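To whoever is covering the structure queue this week,

Two jobs came back overnight. Logging them here so there's a record in the thread.

Job A:
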Amino acid sequence: MNKFKQLSNDEFQREIHKTQDTFDSIEVTQRLYLTGRKDEVLHLKNCKFGHISIQGEFKELTLTNCNIETLSIWARIENTKINNINNPKAEIDIAKANISKLQIVSLSIKKLSIGTTGSTSIKFATIVLCKLDEFNFLAECKLLRFEHSNNIEKVYCHGTIETTKFNTPLHCLDFKSNNSFYQNISYSNKKEGGELSIEKITSTRIIFYGLPNNANINIKDIVCSELKISKNHSPSGRVTLSHCNNFERIMISETTLGTLNIFNTTLSNSLFASSQSLLNEINWQYVKWPNKANLYALASFENTSQLETLRLLKLNAKRQQDKFNTIKFSAFENEVFRTNNIHEKSFGDQLILILNKISNNHGMNPWRGVLFTIVTCALFFFPGLLFLNNPYWSWGWSNWSDFWVVAGKTTELYAKALYAAHSFDYLKDFKPKGIVFVLDLIGRIFVAYGYYQTIVAFRKFNRN
């Protein structure tokens, strides 16, 4: 291995195309332009450059423990490694490049930019153990891993990325582009007071994992199938969703969060669920909430925190004087309470909740109350007809004339039974047995209850 102390730009360029591929302890003071040829391998170690620009085509390019001011890469490279660059004023720009595998480790520089000029394509990019003031990523990438880096002030990801994994303390992370697609975004941040902004992107899944206290997340105008906030402890943190209309599933699990804000967002086809979580406050305006089936799916989670979530939604609706959603969330709250932790409720409370569900859907459906009244009356009236000493009918077919007479008489008596205050002896002509009076008493209780539940549901918009 040859060692060079100082070379000019032309001298260094000529040496590259010779047999050696590794350069150690080289210093080039003037601006350096390197143009590679196909299948060339270039390793730069312990070198000092002012401004270096790499173009052409390389099979492998490695920069290790180099002192540089600016580095620009405009090249097609199979494998690129940049290790141990320590200059707090340095800037690296991987501009118009095509790289199969990019590995950046242990940088301490001012700014790292990838894909800022022209079209840049990277299959796999790994960036770890870096200290940066600013990181810009605008490239097309299949997998971007950004982990175990410290003191990153700003990160801007405006590219097209299939899978993105962030696990690093960041002060500000910003995803924003009008035409960007991210297959998966997974973000984990341990830094106190971290900030994340995601705007105008398309993603299949966005996951926030392990956020610190005071974390501030802003999500605006995105198209996303699934948003998941999991295993976060951020009692003073804030998550804000605005102008988002395409969520299929929003999951908040094992999370303590200060405030959840939802503005101008449609969740009508979403499952909005909070499992094993504590949300101190929920604020929302101009939100189309999930339909009944999706919100009832909250009951499938084995934790009562859904009650707290629905209670906060209900309280916020009351503050906005939104009577309809107040009633709706109250009904959902009762349904979740009915289906969860059955062993913790008394038999009487469980029976009341079941009857409220059946009779008017917790005050939401008056037509269910009408049906409940008709059916429960029939359940006690018709069995009572079997215990008449002088029945007005007999088993078997006679003729249509007798059938209509019996049907008419039965309808008349059933109509009397539907009147909760009917006389006790309305069947006296048929000499009823004692059990008939017992069935009639129980039946009229359920009929009166059905009337009441129907009226309550009809008056749902006038209830306080």
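Job B:
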Amino acid sequence: MRWSGYETFTNFCESDHQVDVRATQTCFMNSINNSLLWKLLNASVFQYVGLFACIFVGVVIVYYVRQFLSTTVDLNQEDRKMLSQAEKLYRSGEITSKEYQIVKANVSKRLKQRLTAELESKLET
């Protein structure tokens, strides 16, 4: 609650009347206290620490999610060789598209099993 003389000092500041030093100082302090810079400087340090902590945690979460999602799938030598041979045979017409699809399905099934095992081991640690 403001004291009763507040409006008097404010009126003195806004008018052309001569005022005493105390009234001028009060008006000056009121204008400083109402400024945005003063409010920012007087804000609690914990607000800024909390804001910084939230931003930092968000960055860390984004980093780990991107790292987890960007795991590359590497075919082993046997799977690569089998796929390349099947593709050559398919292009030369020695096997049908159905046989080629069966080879691809077998390779993808093995790859899916290996990836599932890798993901489970990552999630356990």
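Note for Job B: The chain is about 80% helix and 0% strand.

Please reply-all if you pick these up so we don't duplicate work.
Q.
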